[in-house]
Structure formats: structure tokens, C-alpha cells
């Protein structure tokens, strides 16, 4: 063969490989180009048909997490020509079902699969036919490399109990081989003994501490092989022991109480109205321990219930070993913490992530809690309600709803803490990227919780000013519109505008003093700059697969830019070829630059990665960002600014805002950050507004219980110009009388149904509330 013949052969070889790359990379999403190879494979599972994010050819053998197991399973399921495995949603449904039973379901995957080796491409054993489908030459040998998987893992990431009930059911053992399981044993990390697992029979493991826990596993197969692996689960148990209340570092709940709203709510897309469920704890003051001056703290946006009562209390830490709740309790205030946990809707298998549920439904939980606390508290002190983040919207809605429906919230002060009264922001570029990774051809299971919890949850759809669902192409779950009319910020259809319009029409509570703490700068200081390049990086997933990611913040006013671009590429012999690609553009309105860099409370980007394990794309992604944060709650929103739509306008004395007072920094701070300045502001509002009535005429009032057809009031003093009111346990006023004179004994003829009621007597000198019982 002469020189020119050799050159031609090399060129033809490279062209053939190039064509192979062009066609095979679309196989990341089960392209039909590989269909003719089904009879050539031994296992009938060809890994080249998917974009192998998990790199299953080098599968892990230790600390297998739920996310990793589901990612591997998802890839093998899609790579299987014979469709022997149920779709991933089945496993996710089983996880939810386990939650309803207070069980952690285990799953096993045993499979063999194949991957095309590079030598078969170089030597031409694999070629494209006229129909752009791959075929093998006659007598081609060793075209595929064979791999085996033996994985066991829980289907959930964490447990709220330290005593975990596991179960391995038959329907969650997936095996595409002829190797059968003869026995399975487990060993907790702090236990030397192996315990045999019996299929379909629940078993318990007691974990001594919170955090990530490892369980060792031993699987014996029918061919004599013994597989040793381990899986991990995070324990997030709430202690039931009594703790030292004088030190916030030692605070643990000892009376976490479940509460169900008495008012149902039907959100968009739901078939009926449902009652929300929450949990609360009362932390009594350290002066007299009497529930008489309640301060409510309402949890905010919390996908997956990452904060429990204890961590919510600790979130009030500031400075050095200081805690706002500790100080208030030392001043005689009682702290009532309300959390919105993940729960199962009664009489169903529907799992509700309360921390991201509809804002209205959570507000109705708060309404019920306020009524319950009002019925329990002693004296005439009015409540204080503090709402951080979304908790500020929940609190605002609840207080105003009670006023509009003749329910007495008995609250004097409402503190909004960096709350999104006019909407929140997650960069639309991030939304596009993560949604594409989760539900596009890559099918990244680990990213799905970010999208479903942080972006596609009811609360996120209600709050986000710019939402991915406002930009999707018709019929697509992940591709964005590219026409210029679709690039301006747009909220989630049927969620965003409906909620904001309802909130605006209700307004703010009118019977309270409303003040605001903002973490966004009031002087117009930006978070980075419009069009800032957040990422331009190539993420190496395996030696033959990579992803190129480009991200930018939204642009300056009236400008358009590309905010997100993702390219998944495959390397085959000589070339990196793009197998799939997606991008998103954005345009800023003429009246303001983009949301991402506006003055406002910052979102720490590393917060995205919490609990996501060691996913190769996400690990490299978070390590190579050029920005550490973005604008989450614009100052314009936390202050409910009303005289401009320019998010970059400084807040001045001429700014229109509904708040009577505010604390606004000159630099942008991380969202819901407490510091000496805003804590001093909050304490001034709480302490200086305290009503301390010690009028003996009210303190000595005596009510005869139980009541009959008359309510008998006795006093040794004369009380003039007294207002007498009676409310039921929901706070609804059912009797009111003004300008009364009470001296000695007074009987009030009132017809009451059996139950508990609150009787309030007061005038310009003070008031008192007493509990009465009709039965």
C-alpha cells in the first residue's frame, strides 16, 4: 500500500468514526440507531443508549445512597431493550408509600449490561447502514464489554426517627440475570453482628445519633458469590428529652405537637380542598413559665423539611453565643415555633411537602394555631408574629384573613423578615439548566429534587417572578421558547399572578403594627452585575462523556442575552461530538435591569447542593461557579415598594411602603440573616410595644364556671365603660356588649352551645380574658 492509499484509508476511517459519533450520540435518549444490535448483545442491555451520568461501568460498592441507586436504575431501565424494569416513577411511588407506613423501603438491582468498546469502532467491526442504524460485520468478535451490577439501597434519603423500620419487598428486587439471591444480611455500623433479612418482613435498626449512617450488607448468590456493599441513610430525629432551655445550643423539642388546620384549601390543579398539617412547640419564658406573652415564629420556604423545630430555634442565633429566642424568653416572652413538615394526607397515600405547599393552606394552619394559643394564654398581652422569608407571607395572609372573617388574632405586632411580598427570584438560567438536566435526555435523578422542590412546588410557583413554566415550548417539559416575545420575566401560569393578585387585594393586616427587616441593601448596591458570567466550564463526567455549561445572570434593562446553555458530548476515538443541546435566552424589561443582580437578600448557591451527595455533574458544577450567590428576595419585594417597578431604585424616605418602620442594611446580606443591627430593631419593636396592665379591677375578676343560661361575673371593684365580648375557640366573636358598668355581681343572659369559650372584659384602663365552659 503506497503513501496516498494509506492517507485515504486513514481519512475514510476518520470519516466513518465521525459519522458514527454524529449518529450514536443521539442514542443518549434511546435512539433507534441501536435497535439492530439487540440480537448481538448477550444481556439485551446496551449502556450506550443512555447518557451514563452514574458511570455504572465503574459502579460504587460502598455508601450507596438513594439518589445514586435511582440514577443507576434509571439508566439501566432505559438502556434495556426488553423493558424488563418498571419506570423510575414506580420506585418513587414506593418510596412515598413507605413514608405513609413509617417504613424505609429497600431495593436491590442485579443486572449485567454491555458497552461498545472503542476498538470495534476503530477497526470497522461496527458500522452504519444506509438507514443510519448500527450493524456488526460478519464474524465480528469482542465488540461489547460486559459489566455486572449488584446494588442495594434505601429509596429515601433520610428518616425522622432514630429507630428506623426497613423492609425489602419482593416487588423491589430487580434482577435481569439468572443469578438468584439465596440470603441477605445487614450489619449496622456500630454492631458487630450480622442480621438476616427476610423478604417482605419489616425489621428495625436503632441509630444512636443523627447524621449520615452506614449500614453494611452481604448478599449471597446462587452461584456462590458473596457481594459486600454498604448503603447510607441520614437520620434527622427530633429528641423527646427535656433540655436545658437556658442555652439555645442545647434546645431540643420535648413537646412537638401536630396541628391540623380547621379551614381547608383547594389549590390550582387539586380536585378537592384539603386541610393542612403542621407541627409546633411552645418554649415557655424563663421568668415564670406561664404562657402569657406569645411570640410566634413561622417557618419559611423549606423543601424536604430540612429544618425541624430544633434547627428552627437555632436559626435565631446571632453574634457570639446569642439567640433571639433565648433573650426574649429571659424577658418573659413565650416562643411558639410553627414548622410545616412533610406528611401523609389522611386516608390517602399522598405525601405532602408542607414546607413548599400552597401558602394559603399553610396560612390556615397558622390561623388554627393562633386560635389555640389565644385560648390557652393567660392575661391580656397581645401576640407578636414574626415571619421570616415565606413565613412572612404565611403570617401576613393568616392575620389579614382573620381580620376579614371576624376572627380575633389578638396580635399587636407583625414583623416581616426578608419576605417576598412582591415575589422571589431564582435565576431563570439556573431553572432552565436544572430542569433540562432533570427531565431532559440526561435524566439526572439527583437534580429532580431541586426542580420539584425548589422550583416546581406550589409555593415556588406562587412566589417566583420569573418561572420556567412561563417559557416552555408547547408540549415540551424542558425546551424553552426562543422568540423575542417569550423572553421577558413570566410567572408560572395559573399560580403566580393569581396568588399575587389575591395577596394585593387583601393587603396587609390593619389591626397590627407592621414592620419589616430586609437583608437587601437599601442604597441600590447590586449583587454582581447584570449579564455576569456565572459559569463557562466543561464538566467531565467520565473519560468519554462530558457536559459544557454556560450560565449568565439576566441582562441590563431592555437587553437580551443567553442565560443558559447545556451541551452533552461523547468522545469516540477522535472527536467530541454534541449529542444533545439546549439553551435559554432572557430579556430584561425596559423599566429595570434583570432580577438576578438586583439589590436584595442573597441566596447562597451552595444551598442547592444540600443533601445531593456526590453526583459528578453537581459536584463539579458547584466547585466551578464564578458567583457565590444571586438575588433571592429583591429589596423592592421585601419592602413591598409601591412607587416604582425598578428593582434597582434605592429605598428612601419618599419610597412608598406599607411598613411603619424598617431595618435595611447598606450591603446585601444572605437571606434571613440575623445580626446585631436587625436584632436590636426587632427587640425595640417587641419590647417597647409590650402592654403591662396590672389594674387590680381586672386581675381580681372572677367568673363562675361552668356556665348555664347566664354568665355570672363577680368583682370587688367598679369597672365603668366596659366592653364585654365572647369568642369561640376559633376566635369568632359570638357576643359583644359595650358601655357596661360592672360592680359586684353581673349576670349576662347568653345562650351558648356546649363547649369552651373566651370572655374578654376591658376598657381604656386595661382588659382581661377568661376561659368559660358550657357543658
TrEMBL record:
Coiled-coil region: none
UniProt entry tagged with the keyword DNA damage: no
Keywords tagged on the record: Signal
Domain of life the protein comes from: Bacteria
Start and end residues of each Secretion system C-terminal sorting domain: 705-773
Transmembrane feature ranges: none
Identification of the protein by name: T9SS type A sorting domain-containing protein
Species this chain originates from: Flavobacterium aureirubrum
